[in-house]
Specification:
Blueprint lengths: L4 H4 L4 H10 L1 H24 L3 H29 L1 H19 L5 H29 L2 H28 L7 H7 L1 H12 L6 H6 L3 H12 L24 H26 L1 H7 L7 H23 L4 H21 L5 H17 L3 H9 L2 H32 L1 H22 L8 H4 L6 H8 L1
């Protein structure tokens, strides 16, 4: 059996199932983030919310994702992927259900924060596990597909909200509890998922790693079929060492520049469309659903084209997505058809590059700190997104055009960050894309 079997493997049913189960977290993230926006239609009058409370409720889960990503990415590298892969979903279901029983704004803010912690924990767990089992040829598509599911989750939230529109003033309770349904389904599907053989080998647990390989690849599999150095760097501060610092800065910044406009628009999309004139009856819901469908197409296009170049895809994604937001900012009283078209163009362009949020952190860092890097990038990006979600209601109170202009500026900043910092990792083994040149001191010590 030849070396690099995991990297050179054909796409199997195991890979497809693992990708599907790993996508449960991003689906719930997209769903849970978006559902709070539509729940606000009945939640705001029910709890007599102020603009500040609305902003805090919208941003609380993003701050929670920051904490969850920062903490549990590192913990996942310490104790393994398998246990955390299940435990975070139990917490996610619990906090979703408790949200339905909130009676005051501060209770909902705390519960949305805790929900975000669970979501933030899932990103580094799921992306690391999937990356470490994915064949080189299909890694970009499988990781990218996770963020197609994010967009599907966001679209599903609007569909569910539309179906529950006749429930009455307590509709928000059902909407905020509904992520628990998807969390339980995902949890049951993930039961029995094996530990990462790469992670086991990086921890020196060669016997367990070989047993997992035989389970996944057949009785003839050996450790020769996986290339993974046993001295993979470990520790939270590793990702800030000189050889990784530029990569850490890049993944955190580009991810944040994507999520600031994405999350702000997704959270307050019905309110934004109403300000542009789409406010009759249920048409704001329907308009949001139409836009979300195009967001799904955008995510799918990114997953399909990512193997043509990671850096190229990200540059085009930022450049094109800035233009429709700029158009919405400068065109006075645009007709509704143009508003919908421009939002659809924004979604297709921005969401096409969203798949790289899973791919770049997984490919640029070694196994010992892969989940740590994913967790840090997840957390850092959500701080920017939380600022955007908190600030969006205040900007919208002032001017929807100004809100769009700020979004265009953030997309432009993302393009500049990509131009200056983005490497190309397409077509490389994980050990190749995550490798770095040793600093001069380390080279000198190795020569002694």
């Amino acid at each position: 059996m030849s070396g690099h079997l995991i990297d050179d493997s054909p796409l199997t049913s195991f890979h497809k199932k693992l990708a599907l189960y790993s996508s449960g977290g991003p689906f719930i993230d997209g769903y849970a983030l978006t559902i709070v926006g539509v729940a606000l239609i009945t939640l705001e009058p029910a709890l007599s919310l102020t603009s500040t409370e609305i902003g805090l409720i919208g941003a609380a889960s993003l701050v929670g994702v920051f904490v969850g990503g920062m903490l549990f990415g590192y913990l996942t590298d310490r104790i393994g992927r398998q246990f955390m892969y299940i435990a975070d979903l139990i917490a996610l279901a619990l906090f979703s259900i408790l949200s339905a029983f909130a009676g005051e704004a501060w209770q909902l803010i705390i519960l949305r924060f805790l929900l975000g912690v669970a979501i933030g924990a899932d990103y580094p767990i799921a992306t690391s596990l999937l990356a470490e089992y994915s064949p080189k040829k299909y890694r970009g598509f499988l990781l990218g597909a996770m963020f197609v599911v994010w967009a599907i989750g966001a679209a599903a939230a609007f569909v569910v909200a539309y179906l529950l529109r006749g429930v009455g003033p307590d509709a928000w309770r059902y909407l905020l509890a509904s992520p628990a349904v998807f969390a339980v389904i995902t949890l049951l599907a993930r039961l029995g998922t094996p530990e990462s053989a790469r992670w086991l080998l990086s921890k020196g647990r060669a016997g367990e790693a070989e047993a997992v390989l035989k389970q996944m690849l057949g009785p003839d599999a050996t450790l020769a079929d996986i290339e993974e150095p046993e001295d993979s760097p470990r520790g939270y501060m590793t990702i800030f060492r000189p050889e990784y610092r530029k990569r850490t800065l890049f993944v955190a910044l580009f991810w944040a520049c994507q999520l600031v406009p994405i999350y702000a628009i997704a959270t307050y999309e019905p309110a934004i469309l109403k300000q542009f004139g789409l406010a009759e009856g249920n048409t704001a819901y329907l308009g949001a659903v139409i836009i979300q469908i195009f967001y799904v197409f955008g995510s799918l296009s990114g997953a399909l084209f990512v193997n043509r170049g990671r850096r190229k895809l990200l540059l085009w994604s930022f450049a094109i997505s800035a233009l429709p937001l700029l158009g919405l900012a400068i065109i006075a009283q645009p007709p509704m058809w143009l508003v919908l078209v421009l939002f659809c163009v924004f979604g297709i362009a921005m969401y096409s590059g969203q798949c790289l949020e899973a791919i770049y952190p997984s490919e640029l860092f070694p196994t010992g700190v892969r989940a740590t890097a994913n967790g840090f990038a997840t957390g850092a990006s959500r701080i920017g997104a939380a600022i955007g979600v908190y600030g969006a209601p205040h900007l919208l109170d002032y001017s929807v055009q100004l809100t769009m202009l700020v979004g265009a500026g953030v997309a432009g900043l993302g393009w500049l960050v990509t131009l200056l910092l983005a490497p190309e990792t397409n077509g490389k083994l994980l050990t190749e894309s995550s490798a770095v040149a040793q600093p001069p001191r380390a080279v000198a010590e190795a020569a002694l």
